């Protein structure tokens, strides 16, 4: 599992005192406040202490220690920041999206392997998982308890109870023949 996970990307400056607009790629402002620091690289690298962070629409206004004017903030435009997973705690049964990517998706009842998770998106009320089957087809399913029975990233798998027809290759081949 990756040690440093994406927090967001600086999209522009805000004001003249070094504040920046951060496009959030994590759980939000409250989460980053608890983390307390950000890194400039997926391998760690330079560490910045978060001086202040507050929401602004879907973004955050971020002030980092050592970034005290518009020029310093402008130099970080486009910078992706990372947090160290050891600085954050998740409730039991919750996982980072990065931990779910690459997990094998198996039938909870039969053990049949449907493919691997290639992305997890959050367009609305629940997460949407995209699974790539061994034959190259992609399927999407909702991350709800009725369908998703177990997430086990340390062991590399998810257990699902499929919605009839959703992950069934036979249904797809019948449609193609019609």
TrEMBL record:
It is found in: Cytoplasm. InterPro entries: PRC_barrel-like_sf, PRC_RimM, RimM, RimM_N, RimM_N_sf, Transl_B-barrel_sf. Keywords: Chaperone, Cytoplasm, Ribosome biogenesis, rRNA processing. GO terms for molecular function: ribosome binding. Residues 7-87 form the RimM N-terminal domain. SUPFAM superfamilies: PRC-barrel domain, Translation proteins. One of its GO terms (cellular component) is cytoplasm. The keyword Mitochondrion does not apply. Binds ribosomal protein uS19. An accessory protein needed during the final step in the assembly of 30S ribosomal subunit, possibly for assembly of the head region. Essential for efficient processing of 16S rRNA. May be needed both before and after RbfA during the maturation of 16S rRNA. It has affinity for free ribosomal 30S subunits but not for 70S ribosomes. Belongs to the RimM family. This is Ribosome maturation factor RimM. It comes from Faecalibacterium hattorii.
């Amino acid at each position: 599992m990756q040690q440093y996970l994406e927090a967001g990307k600086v999209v522009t400056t805000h004001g003249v005192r070094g504040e920046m607009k951060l496009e959030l790629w994590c759980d939000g402002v409250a989460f980053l406040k608890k983390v307390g620091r950000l890194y400039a690289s997926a391998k760690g690298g330079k560490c910045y202490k978060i001086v202040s962070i507050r929401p602004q629409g879907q973004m955050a206004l971020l002030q980092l220690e050592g970034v005290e004017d518009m020029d310093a903030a402008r130099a970080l435009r486009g910078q992706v920041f990372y947090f160290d997973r050891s600085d954050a705690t998740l409730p039991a049964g919750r996982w980072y999206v990065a931990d779910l990517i690459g997990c094998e998706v198996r039938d909870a009842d039969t053990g049949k392997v449907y493919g691997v998770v290639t992305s997890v998106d959050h367009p609305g009320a629940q997460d949407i998982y995209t699974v790539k089957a061994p034959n190259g087809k992609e399927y999407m399913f909702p991350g709800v308890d009725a369908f998703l029975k177990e997430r086990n990233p340390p062991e590399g798998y998810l257990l699902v109870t499929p919605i009839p027809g959703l992950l069934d290759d036979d249904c797809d081949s019948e449609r193609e023949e019609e």
